[in-house]
């Protein structure tokens, strides 16, 4: 029997939180790689908040996933067949492989990795797009200076936790906003954040004032919505707000809530700037080198929250939006 | 009889559009200047949109005008008495003199000007804070490059008209948004803008798409509100949005409308940044020198809309918000 490939395909544009009916779980015969292509057996799939806006019929920095198309996702796997000169069977790779068991790749934006140096889940998190997003977002757009106060939202999340730790390495005061006492303890006790604010307790503005007595110089925003407005009220002169994401808005059925306090940008002569990690692709190696060093020194810690079974994708994906995941959310699809 | 001074003092915090009852028109005996002070007879008062937020009880880049205080305003006048070593009777000066007939100054932020070189109204407009705001906001924050498309809102206004002309001088395609066909003709026919969009005709998004076929690289925003959202949808990669003001929001009784499309900053990796002219005070001379040159070459034109009579201040001020003024709004208080 020819080998089979199972996939999650977008069945309908979700309204609000994606439901199971928004997906088709399909199965098809596995294709052979053509010349200059290789076949990857996917082992881990990276689940990221950005996947939710890709499901909308809106032109963004990437085209929307089309109805019937395999859902776009990053993943890590092992090359099992190849007609590509640079990739051999047995090579481990990361790339945009989709929510499926196998993928054909022409090598574009696929990267060979060394599981002897770091585990595949780490290559999807701290040493992958997640970590790169934190690194370049914080350092290039946020431009923190020693002694400044950096606030990070989604601080226990995959990107936020790395951004906060890098800000500590750069000798800033770092305040994380996260949901729940467990996550707050994690970022202060395990990751060394100076303070944590549990947004589920409310009164975020008061808590920010207390934890940021010198005001806020850099805000690394993964969340948007009301938190962004609360932070704007307390930014310092020449503050930098890094717009990395807005997870609070991704399942909105109402229009996005724009930051009503944006005129604080004028009052404080501050800057709000969006970032996308792929703009820094030529510098990934440099960043990975530096972050590997920090990890070896124990200054930078990651945490992966790994669930198993491709068929659980629709439910596991939602943990990003309910805040149930602890660290980088990853779906394990097959044994290494 | 001792000379008298008449003043407009803030009587109440306005809700929405300021009403006559929000002002007290008072009269008092004129004081003598003390040591290191001088007395100015005010000839012209600059009326600026920013004065409206100064009337709110909100800490901003300057303290709010207090109830009972003389309304804060820039002005130009003649020194009539002095105990200050650097200012002599007969000198012409600009400064923050308030909405009144006479002011006492210690010289702080007062500048001597030469009416033989440019008229006093021009020193309040193109060669004053207005022009400086346009110059530094556009060039330093907007950073337009030749061939880029620059959109200016409030384009027939005092700041916007200068910003647009400077963008033309810098060899950009310049599209102005203004209210009404007269203003639109003015900016294209008199000031050389490449195109004008009359927001009162509606369909601003369509008009922007038509007039900015290569997208928008710089947006110089004086208006905020829905125009900002329309522009955001059409910004280019790495666009710069200069937040200079938000006149559409200044008389709001509802909360400020935040830009719901702010996530385009992420999608297009763009920047939104506030500016305040006083940050560039050390470079005013350089800017004035350059702008004087452009004026002499006919590349930069100003227009002042001058009304007379201090007592008309409450009504004339409102022209800024109804859009009735044509160019820089100035109140003439006394004959030169």
CATH architecture of the largest domain in chain A: Alpha-Beta Complex
Counting helices, strands and paired strands, the structural category of chain A is alpha/beta
Question: What proportion of the residues of chain A form beta strands (DSSP E)?
Answer: 25-35%
The main β sheet of chain A shows up as: 7 strands, mixed
Overall geometry of chain A comes to globular
CATH class of the largest domain in chain A: Alpha Beta
Total count of helical runs of at least 4 residues of chain A: 10
Spans where pLDDT lies below 50 across 5 or more residues of chain A:
none
And the CATH topology of the largest domain in chain A? Quinone Oxidoreductase, Chain A, domain 1
Q: Order of helices and strands of chain A, N to C?
A: EEEHEEEEHHEHEHEHEHEHEHEHE
Considering the protein shown, what is the CATH homologous superfamily of the largest domain in chain A?
A: Medium-chain alcohol dehydrogenases, catalytic domain
Mean pLDDT of chain A: 96
How far is the first residue's CA from the last residue's CA of chain A? 23 Å
- Count the beta strands of chain A: 15
What count of structural domains of chain A?
2
What is the subunit organization of this protein?
A: homodimer
Cα Rg of chain A: 20 Å
Helix proportion range of chain A: 25-40%
């Amino acid at each position: 029997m020819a080998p089979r490939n199972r996939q999650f395909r977008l069945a309908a544009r979700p309204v609000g939180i994606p439901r199971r009916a928004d997906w088709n779980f399909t199965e098809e015969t596995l294709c052979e790689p053509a010349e200059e292509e290789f076949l990857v057996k996917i082992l881990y799939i990276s689940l990221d908040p950005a996947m939710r806006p890709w499901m909308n019929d809106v032109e963004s920095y990437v085209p929307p996933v089309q109805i019937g198309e395999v859902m776009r996702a990053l993943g890590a796997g092992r090359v099992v067949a190849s007609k590509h000169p640079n990739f051999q069977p047995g090579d481990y790779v990361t790339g945009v492989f989709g929510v499926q068991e196998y993928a054909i790749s022409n090598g574009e934006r696929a990267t060979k990795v060394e599981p002897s140096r770091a585990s595949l889940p780490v290559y999807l998190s701290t040493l992958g797009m997640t970590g790169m997003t934190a690194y370049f977002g914080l350092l290039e757009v946020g431009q923190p200076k020693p002694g400044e106060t950096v606030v990070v939202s989604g601080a226990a999340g995959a990107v936020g936790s790395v951004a906060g730790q890098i800000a500590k390495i750069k000798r800033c005061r770092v305040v994380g906003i996260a949901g729940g006492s467990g996550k707050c303890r994690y970022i202060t006790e395990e990751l060394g954040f100076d303070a944590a604010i549990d947004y589920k307790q409310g009164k975020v503005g008061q808590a920010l004032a207390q934890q940021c007595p010198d005001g806020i110089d850099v805000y690394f925003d993964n969340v948007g919505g009301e938190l962004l407005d609360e932070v704007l009220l307390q930014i310092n002169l020449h503050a930098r707000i890094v717009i990395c994401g807005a997870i609070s808005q991704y399942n909105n059925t109402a229009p996005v809530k724009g930051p009503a306090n944006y005129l604080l940008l004028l009052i404080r002569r501050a800057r709000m700037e969006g970032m996308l990690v792929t703009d820094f692709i030529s510098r990934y190696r440099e960043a990975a080198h530096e972050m590997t060093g920090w990890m070896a020194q124990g200054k930078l810690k990651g945490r992966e929250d790994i669930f198993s079974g491709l068929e659980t994708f629709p439910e596991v994906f939602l943990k990003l939006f309910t805040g149930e995941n602890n660290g980088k959310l990853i779906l394990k699809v097959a044994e290494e």
